[in-house]
C-alpha cells in the first residue's frame, strides 16, 4: 500500500484558470499552483478564505484530477445552501482569482495502480471526487487493475462526471460503473434505484474477477457508515475498508 | 491575504473566555471521524493492557477495569478538522489511577495508545499524568457509543482529538516518541490546538 511520507505543504497562492459546471449543484474549479506539487489519488487540499476584517474560513476539498495532470488541480465543490465556503465558490469565485491553498494532504485514503487490486470504490454525492482521481489515475496509467465504482446520487442529473464515467465504463477494460439513484428510477439496465445495501455490494463485487483487495468509501458521514456496514455484511473484512468522511 | 469578494456573514465565534483555539469553530453536534468502519467491541471481549515496549506490565478485563476509581472530566475538545465542542463531560479512569493500580510510575517519557482496529497514536507520558487524561467509559453519563469509541476511549482533551484514541485496548511506554497512525500520514507529532499543530510541518 502506498502510504505517503509526510510532505512539506505550506500555504501557497493558486490561480483559478477554469470553472466548469458539472451538475446543478456541483462546479469544478481548476487551480494553477504557484508551487506545483505531486499528489496521490485520494488526497485533498485545504483552502483558506480571508475577509477584509481578518476573519478566515478554511475547508478541505478532495482533488479530482489524476496525479498525472501536471501543475493544475481540479476540485469539485458541491453547493450547500446555508454553507459559508461552498456558496462563495459558486457565487463569487471567478477565473483569475487567487485563492490560498495548501496540500497535498492526507496519506491514508489513497490508491495508486502499483497498489494493485481488484478494488471496489463506493462514493456518495461529492464523495465520488477522490474516487474520480483514482479512476482517472488508472486510465492515465493504462492500468488493467479491475475496479468497480459504485456511485450513489439522488437523481441522474446529479451524477457528477457522468459522461466521462459512462465512456470509461463502455471501454470494457476492467472498469465497472454501477450507478444507484435514490430518488429516481435507474436509467441503465444494470443500475439500481435505491440506497446502497449488502446485496448491491455483493452484486457489484461479482463483476470483479476476484474479491477486492481493498474497498474505498467516501461521502458524508451517514453515507459512509451505511456503505461500510453494507460492505461488512457483504463479507468484506473490515480491515480492507478505508473510509473518508466529509463531515456532518 | 484578503480573498476578493469574501465577506462572511459569520463572525469569529464569540470567544470572550478565550476558549476557541485559532482556526476552530464551535460545533453543537458531535461529528464522527475515523479511518475505517466502526469496530464493534463487546465488553466480554474487551481488555486493556499496559506495556513497556513489548513487555506487558498489567492487563485488566472489563470488570477489573471498571472496579478502578471512576473520575469525571468536563472539558472542551478540539478536532483537527476545525470543530471545537465545549463542556463535554466524561467519566472514566485517570491514567494516574491505572498506573497506581499497576504499582508503577511512567517508565519512559513516551507512550503509544493502541486500539482494537490497529490504530495507534503517540502521546508524551507527561501529557497523560497529573489528572490530564483518562480512559473514558461514559459520555454525558451514558456508555460511549461505538461511533465515538465505546466501550472505552482515551481522552486527552488538551491535544487535538485524534490523540484521544477510540476503541482503546492498551497503552505502551516507548523509549522514543514513535509516530502513530495519523502522525505517519502527515499529521503533527504533538498536536497542540493552541499552536495549531495540525500537519507535520507546522511549528
Ligand atoms: C477530506 C475532505 C474532503 C472533502 N472534499 C470535498 C469535495 O471534494 N467536495 C465537496 O463539495 N466537499 C468536500 N468536503 C466538504 C467540505 O470541506 C465542506 O465541508 C463543504 O464544502 C461545506 O462547507 P461550507 O463552508 O459551504 O459549509 P459550512 O459553512 O461548513 O456548513 C456546512 C453545514 O453545516 C451547517 N453549519 C455549520 N456551521 C454553521 C453555522 N455557524 N451557522 C449555521 N449553520 C452552520 C450548515 O447547515 C451547512 O449546511 C470535504 C471534506 C473533507 C474533510
TrEMBL record, chain A:
Span of domain FAD-binding FR-type: 9-111
InterPro entries membership: Cbr1-like_FAD-bd_dom, FAD-bd_FR_type, Flavoprot_Pyr_Nucl_cyt_Rdtase, FNR_nucleotide-bd, MRET, OxRdtase_FAD/NAD-bd, Riboflavin_synthase-like_b-brl
Pfam families hit by this protein: FAD_binding_6 (PF00970), NAD_binding_1 (PF00175)
Domain of life: Bacteria
Cofactor: [2Fe-2S] cluster
PANTHER family attached to this UniProt entry: NADH OXIDOREDUCTASE HCR (PTHR47354), PROTEIN RFBI (PTHR47354:SF5)
Protein name per its UniProtKB record: Ferredoxin reductase
TrEMBL record, chain B:
Occurrences of domain Oxidoreductase molybdopterin-binding (ranges): 36-182
Domain of life the protein comes from: Bacteria
Residue numbers spanned by region Disordered: 1-22
Short name of any one Pfam family annotated for the protein: Oxidored_molyb
Gene3D superfamilies: Oxidoreductase, molybdopterin-binding domain
Protein name as it appears in the record: Sulfite oxidase-like oxidoreductase
Stored SUPFAM superfamilies: Oxidoreductase molybdopterin-binding domain
InterPro entries: OxRdtase_Mopterin-bd_dom, OxRdtase_Mopterin-bd_sf
CDD domains: arch_bact_SO_family_Moco
Amino acid at each position: 500500500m502506498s502510504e505517503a511520507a509526510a510532505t512539506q505543504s505550506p500555504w501557497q497562492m493558486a490561480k483559478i484558470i477554469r470553472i466548469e459546471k458539472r451538475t446543478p449543484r456541483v462546479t469544478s474549479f481548476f487551480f494553477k499552483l504557484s508551487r506545483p506539487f505531486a499528489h496521490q489519488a485520494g488526497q485533498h487540499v485545504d483552502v483558506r478564505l480571508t475577509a477584509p476584517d481578518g476573519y478566515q474560513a478554511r475547508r478541505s476539498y478532495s482533488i479530482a484530477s489524476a496525479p498525472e495532470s501536471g501543475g493544475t488541480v481540479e476540485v469539485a465543490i458541491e453547493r450547500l445552501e446555508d454553507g459559508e465556503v461552498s456558496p462563495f465558490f459558486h457565487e463569487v469565485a471567478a477565473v483569475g482569482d487567487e485563492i490560498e491553498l495548501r496540500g497535498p494532504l492526507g496519506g491514508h485514503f489513497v490508491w495508486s495502480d502499483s497498489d494493485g487490486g481488484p478494488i471496489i470504490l463506493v462514493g456518495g454525492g461529492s464523495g465520488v471526487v477522490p474516487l474520480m482521481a483514482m479512476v482517472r489515475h488508472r486510465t492515465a496509467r493504462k492500468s488493467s487493475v479491475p475496479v468497480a465504482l459504485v456511485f450513489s446520487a439522488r437523481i441522474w442529473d446529479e451524477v457528477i462526471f457522468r459522461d466521462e464515467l459512462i465512456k470509461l465504463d463502455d471501454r470494457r477494460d476492467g472498469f465497472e460503473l454501477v450507478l444507484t439513484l435514490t430518488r429516481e428510477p435507474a436509467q441503465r439496465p444494470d443500475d439500481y434505484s435505491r440506497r446502497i445495501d449488502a446485496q448491491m455490494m455483493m452484486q457489484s463485487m461479482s463483476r470483479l474477477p476476484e474479491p477486492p483487495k481493498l474497498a474505498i468509501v467516501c461521502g458524508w458521514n451517514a453515507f459512509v457508515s451505511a456503505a461500510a456496514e453494507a460492505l461488512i455484511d457483504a463479507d468484506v473484512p473490515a480491515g480492507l475498508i478505508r473510509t473518508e468522511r466529509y463531515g456532518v | 491575504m484578503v480573498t476578493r469578494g469574501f465577506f462572511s456573514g459569520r463572525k469569529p465565534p464569540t470567544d470572550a473566555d478565550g476558549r476557541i483555539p485559532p482556526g476552530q469553530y464551535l460545533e453543537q453536534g458531535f461529528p464522527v471521524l475515523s479511518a475505517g468502519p466502526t469496530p464493534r467491541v463487546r465488553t466480554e471481549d474487551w481488555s486493556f493492557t499496559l506495556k513497556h515496549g513489548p513487555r506487558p506490565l498489567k492487563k485488566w478485563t472489563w470488570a477489573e477495569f471498571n472496579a478502578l476509581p471512576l473520575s469525571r472530566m468536563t472539558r472542551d475538545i478540539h478536532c483537527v478538522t476545525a470543530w471545537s465542542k465545549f463542556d463535554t463531560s466524561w467519566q472514566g479512569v485517570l491514567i494516574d489511577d491505572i498506573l497506581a493500580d499497576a504499582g508503577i510510575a511512567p517508565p519512559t517519557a513516551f507512550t503509544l495508545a493502541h486500539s482494537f482496529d490497529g490504530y495507534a497514536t503517540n502521546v508524551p507520558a507527561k501529557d497523560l499524568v497529573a489528572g490530564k487524561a483518562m480512559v473514558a467509559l461514559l459520555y454525558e453519563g451514558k456508555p460511549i457509543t461505538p461511533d465515538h469509541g465505546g466501550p472505552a476511549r482515551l481522552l486527552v482533551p488538551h491535544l487535538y482529538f485524534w490523540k484521544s484514541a477510540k476503541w482503546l485496548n492498551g497503552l505502551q511506554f516507548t523509549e522514543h516518541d514513535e509516530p502513530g497512525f495519523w502522525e505517519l500520514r502527515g499529521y503533527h507529532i504533538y498536536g497542540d490546538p493552541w499552536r495549531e499543530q495540525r500537519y507535520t510541518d507546522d511549528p
